[in-house]
């Protein structure tokens, strides 16, 4: 990334944002303060080496935290229950998590959302 480029930052705390679609109606997420907002809700700042370093660390932390998260409405291709459509009782993977998956999912939800949940909806 060149120094004349820009980087999207959080309007609440100023940290670089993570682009993600795991949160309904929010394309940007701040792993530092847990702010989430739409594509036009971020603040564009000039790229700096310091911001890039912050982004790299936040992205790494975010990727580690989100590993066990199962978004609502998500189906897993390799899951028999997700692919069964007769009764539609197990349509989404979130509806039939194993104990291990449920533990990982709850841990990820706490890391991602339960500290703050500031979602901007336009």
Walk me through this protein's architecture.
With 122 residues, this protein is an alpha+beta fold. The protein has one domain (6-119). Helix content is 30%, strand content 19%. It is built from three helices and six strands, in the order βββββαααβ. It has helices spanning 49-66, 80-83, 99-112, and strands at 6-9, 18-23, 26-29, 35-37, 43-46, 118-119. A hairpin with a 2-residue loop joins β2 (18-23) and β3 (26-29). The two termini are 31 Å apart. The mean pLDDT is 82.
Classification by helices and strands: alpha+beta
Helix content: 25-40%
Number of helices: 3
Taking strands numbered 1, 2, ... along the chain, how are they ordered across the largest sheet?
Answer: 2-3-4-6
What does the main sheet amount to?
Answer: 4 strands, mixed
Low-confidence stretches: none
Give the terminus-to-terminus CA distance. Answer: 31 Å
Overall 3D shape: elongated
Please state roughly what percent of the residues sit in beta strands, choosing from under 5%, 5-15%, 15-25%, 25-35%, 35-45% or over 45%. Answer: 15-25%
pLDDT averaged over residues: 82
Q: In angstroms, what is the radius of gyration?
A: 17 Å
Total of domains? 1
Beta strand count: 6
* Succession of helices and strands: EEEEEHHHE
Oligomer: single chain
